[in-house]
Design goal:
globular, binds FE2/S2 (inorganic) cluster
């Protein structure tokens, strides 16, 4: 099963097994991280905001307009970076085995 490497805001690191096809947000939410996934993955809360390590960005599908708009909106209250993504919009695949990310500060 593919694995991801997660760094939390407090510096704690976790390795999570994530089934191919699963939403990354659900794996983070259920895996003991601070991700809440408040909107259930509807791309409307920003609570699954993560910073994807640079070497993985090009392996992800580009953000859709609604994801980009949500990231822009949360930029009023949290730091948004070029590597910002919403984990609910990322679906795990074998090609993402080893994905590394940092969870952004909570909204
Ligand atoms: S879970 Fe709400 S935007 Fe991702």
């Amino acid at each position: 099963m593919p694995q991801i490497f997660v760094t939390q805001q407090d510096g704690q690191t976790l390795t999570l097994d994530v089934a191919a096809g699963a939403r990354l947000m659900e794996a983070l939410r259920d895996g003991g991280t601070t991700v809440e996934g408040t909107c259930g993955g509807a791309c409307s809360c920003g609570s699954c905001h993560v910073y994807v390590d640079a070497q993985w960005l090009s392996k992800l599908d580009a953000a859709a307009d609604d994801e980009s708009e949500m990231i822009e909106a949360i930029g009023d209250v949290v730091e948004v970076r070029p590597s910002s993504r919403l984990a609910c919009q990322i679906h795990m695949s074998d090609a993402l085995d080893g994905l590394s990310l940092t969870i952004a500060e909570a909204i």
